[in-house]
What does this fold into?
Amino acid sequence: TTGMVTLDPGFVNTAACSSEITYIDGDAGILRYRGYPIEQLAEKSSFLEVSYLLIHGELPTDTQLREFTQQITRHTLLDEDLKRFFDGFPRDAHPMPVLSSAVSALSTFYQDNLNPFDEPNVHLSTIRLLAKVPTLAAYAYKKSVGQPLLYPDNSLNYVENFLRLCFGLPAEPYEIDPEVAKALDMLFTLHADHEQNCSTSTVRVVGSSEANLFASISAGIMALFGPLHGGANAAVLDMLEDIRDQGGDVNAYVNRVKNKEPGVKLMGFGHRVYKNYDPRARIVKATADQLLTKLAPNDHLLELATQLEEVALHDDYFISRKLYPNVDFYTGLIYRAMGFPTKMFTVLFAIGRLPGWIAHYREMIHDPATKIARPRQVYTGPAERDFLEIEKR
Ligand code: SDX
It folds into this structure.
């Protein structure tokens, strides 16, 4: 009860106020997936193993992980008709709306398997989404650069397959850099879930109407697209390049932020929940330090980002507002060094977040207490009044 309206348990659950999946302590900077600290999972686990953990609640046995991986590997192909779907978009289309539309379109090929209350259907949809979203993402990128779409290579692991679909060419063999594949796998793990964030809440709200899993994920992708949410990793790169092009004076930019110039924020900083350093940002920064030395030794944007962080962390404007780097502050630098264009950064976030969205959808749809999301409101408009003829207005 908020003193104005009483929230019924069903609404509270659907509006995503209770879950067993992820725990965050924003003041202490703690993040755990199903009780396991993100630092341990990032170091010791893999993205598919973490995906299994988020969706099923326990770390898989060797047999379970092997079966899960094999099922996903065998579903990476798209229906040939769906490949033509990409021809309908302009070359310079942003890949996020393309991906969201493609996920919706994907569901039209499985119309007999969309019942959200049929467990085998939901499991098959889970496998199909985890397997095909990277293929769809790679195809969105290939169309934007006018290159041919490759077929998945099932001899490669999940991330290697995605990298080859993005950067491979039919005319020559693609050489996987194991360090890049390992780093991208870990970045996907860091993004895999984050409690009731904007896009996950969107998935739960849409799913509460008994919309199928594909429809709910498609909606989540568009919520993630916003620059205040997943779009921030691309906005950080734009901000750093803008500072560099203006002469590299980070203090001048920080002053523009503090003066609250319209549209000027310290992108990649601040968080609705973390009022301390985002534990994921700490891990990403260590990866950036290590990987960029190898991949982009002359990329001065990391140096600029580190200077910007240093200034902000010691400036009372940010300290008093408890603004710290979040997961998006350093990820874009790594994605750029891997060869991804800025437009693909939020698509990479979506691939990482997919298992978390799926886990939350399944938790919500299986909970008997769930009701359709229907937020109530406090009406603040005009009191009752009579219609006014147009000549009297
Ligand atoms: C993600 O929810 C999740 O978990 C999201 C996410 C996930 O994994 O799903 O963690 C991923 O979305 C991370 C956030 C990425 N977005 C950005 O980096 C964009 C820049 N950040 C901000 O826009 C902002 O910090 C938000 C949107 C993230 C949070 O906005 P809030 O809730 O308004 O922030 P706040 O209440 O803490 O703000 C307090 C003050 C305000 O100033 P005053 O009105 O008190 O003077 O801090 C200011 C805000 O204006 N502020 C910023 C700022 N963030 C907050 N000022 C400058 N730059 C910023 N980045």
